[in-house]
TrEMBL record:
Belongs to the NFX1 family. The keyword Transcription regulation applies. The lineage of its organism: Eukaryota, Fungi, Dikarya, Ascomycota, Saccharomycotina. This is WGS project CCBQ000000000 data, contig 00017. It comes from Kluyveromyces dobzhanskii CBS 2104. Residues 48-97 form the RING-type domain. One of its GO terms (molecular function) is RNA polymerase II transcription regulatory region sequence-specific DNA binding. PROSITE patterns: R3H (PS51061), ZF_PHD_2 (PS50016), ZF_RING_2 (PS50089). The keyword Cell membrane does not apply. Its main location: nucleus. One of its GO terms (biological process) is negative regulation of transcription by RNA polymerase II. Pfam families: R3H, zf-NF-X1.
Length: 920
């Protein structure tokens, strides 16, 4: 490109510099836009900024109307289309001066410089010019230059303009008329007659009216009533209405009203009235008395004639009779009427009638005097939605609240959300939005508005490139554009190991501001409590977060308990113990249930543990509260149940059964079943006619179960009724009926579908009968059995725990014998010790994932081999040896590919590093 620097939009256009500037000295005074036409005419000098092709007279051209830079028409059209697709307002900028444009050039419709001819013919002498007069509307005369590139020349046609007062006129060039306007100041005094008709205007040449007369009259002039006079009055302040005259016949001309008030007499010389300074002033005793009997014919309210009141008046001083009607004369407010009874004198003024007036926001109503013209205000906040629908109006008693309520009830279309003409003026939000745009970098500069903020229109002229340089977003890059995920590996992988010393794991390229993934190499670290010196964990785990999971179990300082925390930092044990005491009480031996009280003695409170007391034969049992205190022993030692007749009967029964060695048939009487409760080991030993499920349901729903039991008893007592169909019920209830029917030996089945499914019962001939005991009695026996069973279980567990505690013996275990076997790796075919630096990293990459601790490397000169053995050679475990055997094939393959060794195998080494061959 031969032309020089670009034109910036904030500066005036400057001349382009080109190679021709150095070749021809006569062209230095030619404007840059004419120089552009000369270079296009030559055909090999002027280059399009977009496509970098030399323009000639045969090209279709487009010129910017701001900087006059010429482009190839198709190039600038393509530029504009790409830019409008990226902007919200469909605008594009000139590539040279960045002027904002909204009109995209039409396809295949390039014009000449003046725009009159579309697709002009080739003009070799004046490229892209149609040869016609430009005639652009730069002024009223139009541009007279031939179709040209660049600014229009100044119009020199003379025009006439007048001065502001219109007295003079002159000729100036048309181009200067834009600066001076249609008029100018001649500097002479106006001297026009003022509205008073006596004085003239003293202003210099001006436009418009001369205004009021400002001439000051120095003489003293009287007022309308003649009570005072004053000097230095402006001519415009004089107001002559009429001649003024007093009682003596003296006349004068008043020019202004004074503040004086006069008291005058009526013609009767008994009543007076007040008059302000008016023109002409009234003469004392010149007006007839309004209270004269000749003038006053009605009562004060005007509703009744005085003749009808039978109270004749002869003089104006006689009292005026009144009627009994309400006055009802219009008051000065113009709304109400006088509420008083017919009276003399003035009516209520000002009007003091109380009215109900709503406040400004119509939230409350106030009682106000009629003459209170101000609208009352309440103390209620408006809290209506502002136009932005984000803020609320905090104005007290807002005038726009009634309209806002109607607006909230009306439906708004989505397109009308931003239409502020539909919102009352009081609720137009004037705050700035200041929300973050979608780019999360810039703030919204709009006024507070509803809906989403506009897209960010900022852009970056530089390409957006990922750290590895293989993924690029070409410029211009719109603000908020994110770099797409790069599929290539991160460049830091090849830069060497990380700060921790391990090699970075494979991962994809990421943004420059983000860190690489943390190291996931397996390492050995100490746990927080230092009980485990080698805990296998990841490198990324901090040292203060490595935990072995074992309970601390250290004695606490202030009590007899031990710390229950799991693997914590040394010295971080519990300072305040919250465990239960659990020490045995001295009075009864039960554990103390109180919260840990340190090394203080257990509080001497009443023991609430439950204990069992029995009779002498252990048939009868009862649970009671221990109740032991420091002064009272436990109830288990001082209370005893007395044996009853059932105990003696059971004792004889058991002796007979033991003597005869026979199994008696199930007993069916209640007394016989009660004896089974004492000796039964399970539910079947009770010999009850009901199932355990039936008795369990009866315990929960006794009332309903009694109704079903009564219904079955009535059914079995009726000999002629063979079947019974119960009402529909739910599945759990039907199951109870089936279980209870089996105790009566009834045939039962469920019929119909849900939700009308019910139970059908039928008597079985010679089998159906009532159970030996009722359901209520069987439930009592079952509850006694459960109580005894629970007591026996507690005694069983208590005795078992006691025996285990006494008989525990910890056997002495002898340490396991030391491991004898493979404990080292030998690599043969190593030329010298210099290869150790290359060999170590290869072997270490495989051994770091095994249980081999800190592998040591030793070069054996006599055999040109390398011995690899763990740090704990003599105490090595069998698991470590197995790991060593598994990685030998992989190490062998890696070393042979790099030609670092010829053979590798496992071996056994003693304390003197004597190698004992071993099969690998």
């Amino acid at each position: 490109m031969t032309t020089g620097g670009l034109i910036y939009p904030d500066k005036e256009p400057e001349l382009y510099s080109s190679e021709s500037d150095f070749d021809d000295e006569n062209d230095t005074d030619i404007p840059y836009y004419e120089q552009t036409v000369n270079e296009i005419r030559d055909g090999d000098q002027y280059v399009c900024m977009i496509c970098t092709v030399e323009l000639d007279s045969a090209c279709h051209m487009y010129a910017c109307d701001s900087c006059y830079r010429v482009f190839d028409y198709e190039c600038v059209r393509e530029w504009a289309l790409k830019s409008t697709n990226k902007t919200a307002d469909k605008s594009w900028k000139c590539p040279n001066c960045y002027k904002l444009n909204h009109k995209v050039p039409a396809p295949k419709r390039s014009t000449c410089w003046c725009g009159k001819v579309v697709n002009p013919e080739v003009n070799d002498l004046d490229p892209n010019s149609c040869g016609q007069t430009c005639n652009a509307k730069a002024c009223v005369h139009g541009c007279s230059k031939i179709c040209h590139l660049g600014p229009h020349p100044e119009c020199l046609i003379p025009v006439h303009i007048k001065c502001k007062c219109g007295k003079h006129s002159k000729q100036i060039p048309c181009s200067k008329s834009k600066v001076l306007g249609d008029s100018y100041d001649c500097g002479e005094v106006c001297d026009l007659l003022m509205p008073c008709g006596k004085h003239t205007c003293e202003k210099t040449c001006h436009t418009g009216l001369c205004g009021p007369c400002q001439f000051v009259i120095l003489d003293s002039l009287p007022c309308y009533c003649g009570s005072e006079s004053k000097p230095n009055i402006k001519c415009s302040d004089l107001n002559v209405i009429d001649y003024s005259k007093d009682a003596s016949g003296k006349e004068w001309i008043g020019v202004y009203p004074c503040p004086a008030v006069r008291t005058l007499h009526y013609s009767c010389d008994k009543h007076t009235y007040v008059e302000y300074c008016t023109s002409p002033p009234s003469i004392d005793k010149s007006q007839a008395c309004p209270f004269s009997p000749r003038k006053l014919k009605t009562c004060p309210c005007g509703k009744n004639m005085l003749k009808q009141l039978d109270r004749p008046r002869r003089h104006c001083t006689d009292p005026i009779p009144t009627c009994d009607n309400v006055c009802e004369k219009p008051l000065s407010c113009g709304v109400h009427r006088c509420p008083y009874t017919c009276h003399t004198g003035d009516c209520m003024d000002p009007c003091l009638i109380i009215t109900k007036t709503p406040c400004t926001c119509h939230s409350k109503t106030f009682l106000t005097p009629c003459q209170l013209h101000d609208t009352p205000h309440c103390n209620v906040k408006c809290e209506s939605n502002m136009s932005c629908r984000r803020h609320k109006c905090m104005e007290i008693c807002c005038t726009g609240k009634p309209t806002a309520k109607k607006r909230d009830k009306s439906l708004f279309l989505k397109k009308d959300r931003n239409d502020e003409t539909l919102v009352e003026p009081e609720h137009i939000c004037l705050k700035q939005c200041n929300l973050k745009l979608s780019c999360e970098l810039h703030d919204c500069t709009w006024k507070c508005h509803p809906g989403k903020c506009p897209p960010c229109l900022e852009s970056d002229p530089n390409d957006l490139v990922c750290p590895c340089g293989k993924t690029i977003v070409p410029a211009p890059v719109r603000c908020g554009t994110k770099l797409p995920p790069c599929p290539n590996p991160c460049i830091k992988i090849s830069e060497g190991p990380a700060a921790c010393g391990h090699r970075l794991g494979p991962h994809k390229c990421h943004a420059a501001g983000t860190e690489c993934p943390p190291c996931t190499a397996n390492v050995l670290k100490k746990c927080r409590c230092y009980k485990q010196q080698e805990m296998r964990t990841l490198c990324l785990v901090p040292a203060d977060q490595v935990t072995c999971g074992t309970v601390c179990d250290k004695p606490l300082l202030n009590c007899h308990h031990k710390c229950l925390k799991k693997c914590h930092i040394t010295g971080d044990c519990d300072t305040k113990c919250t465990q239960p005491c659990q020490l045995k009480r001295d009075t009864c031996g039960h554990p103390c249930k109180e919260r840990c009280h340190g090394k203080l003695p257990c509080p001497q409170k009443l023991c609430h543990e439950m204990v069992i007391i029995t009779c002498d034969c252990n048939r009868r049992t009862m649970q009671v509260e221990c109740g032991a205190t420091s002064e009272t022993p436990s109830n288990s030692t001082k209370q005893k149940l007395a044996c009853d007749d059932a105990c003696a009967t059971l004792q004889r029964h058991m002796e007979l059964m033991e003597a005869f060695g026979m199994n008696a048939k199930p007993k069916t009487t209640k007394e016989q079943m009660e004896s089974f409760v004492l000796v039964a080991k399970n539910f079947d030993d009770l010999k009850l006619p009901y199932s355990e499920l039936t008795l369990t349901i009866y315990k929960r729903q006794t009332r309903w179960c009694d109704q079903i039991s009564t219904l079955l008893n009535e059914f079995i007592d009726e000999p002629f009724k063979l079947s019974l169909h119960l009402k529909p019920m739910r599945e759990p209830q039907r199951q109870f009926v089936h279980e209870l029917a089996s105790a009566y030996s009834f045939y039962s089945e469920s019929q119909d579908r849900e939700p009308n499914r019910s139970v059908y019962l039928k008597k079985v001939k010679s089998q159906s009968k009532k159970p030996d005991i009722s359901l209520e009695e069987a439930s009592e026996l079952y509850q006694q059995f459960k109580t005894l069973e629970k007591a026996r279980m507690q005694e069983h567990y208590a005795s078992k725990v006691t025996k285990t505690y006494v008989n525990i013996q910890v056997p002495e275990t002898s340490p396991p014998p030391p491991y004898q076997g493979v404990n080292a790796i030998v690599i043969s075919g190593v030329y010298d010790s210099s290869q150790m630096d290359v060999l170590k990293p290869v072997v270490h990459d495989f051994l770091k994932y095994t249980l081999v601790k800190s592998p040591q490397y030793k070069f054996l000169n006599e055999s040109n081999s390398v011995l690899i053995y763990p740090e704990d050679l003599l105490t090595m475990t069998e698991n470590s040896a197995n790991d060593m055997k598994k990685v030998v094939p992989f190490i062998k393959t890696a070393l042979q590919e790099q030609m670092l060794a010829s053979e590798i195998s496992t071996c056994q080494v003693d304390g003197n590093f004597t190698v004992v061959p071993h099969d690998s």
